[in-house]
Amino acid sequence: MDKTLKFTDSHEWVRDNGDGTVTIGISDHAQQMLGDVVFVDLPEVEDEIEAGETFSLVESVKAASDIYAPISGEIVEINEELEDSPELVNEEPYDGGWIARVKLSDSAELDDLKDAEEYLNSIEDE
């Protein structure tokens, strides 16, 4: 797992792109719990998102799951490949299966997220 990723308790990940933007997706653990992803309801570019609020939805053969914004900001890009290939969330949760790129409104919010080691320890306890 990429050690630069940060995580939420609700299994979203964040990668700091180093340019004031972050990439957001769901963790490998989350996609395993969901099962085969069949649809991703992507947000709109220019949408404002607030940390802790729902900004996307992932549907699998088992369930539909809200995706919560790990940080606040403006969506600057969405992963349009997921429209035709939602299975990328299962196959490449940290690479091709990303959901959105967001321009941060407050980079200090990143400090509130778990690092990879903290996250892995927290899911071992589930």
From TrEMBL:
Keywords for the protein's UniProt record, in alphabetical order: Lipoyl
Cofactor note (record): Binds 1 lipoyl cofactor covalently.
KW rRNA-binding (keyword) present: no
Residues with N6-lipoyllysine modification: K62
Cofactor(s) named in the record: (R)-lipoate
Keyword Nuclease: no
Every Lipoyl-binding domain range: 21-103
Cited InterPro entries: Biotin_lipoyl, GCV_H, GCV_H/Fam206, GCV_H_sub, Single_hybrid_motif
Name of a matching Pfam family: GCV_H
Role description: The glycine cleavage system catalyzes the degradation of glycine. The H protein shuttles the methylamine group of glycine from the P protein to the T protein.
Entry similarity comment: Belongs to the GcvH family.
Subunit structure, interactors included: The glycine cleavage system is composed of four proteins: P, T, L and H.
Record protein name field: Glycine cleavage system H protein
UniProt source species: Vibrio agarivorans
Taxonomic path: Bacteria, Pseudomonadati, Pseudomonadota, Gammaproteobacteria, Vibrionales
Designated gene of the protein: gcvH
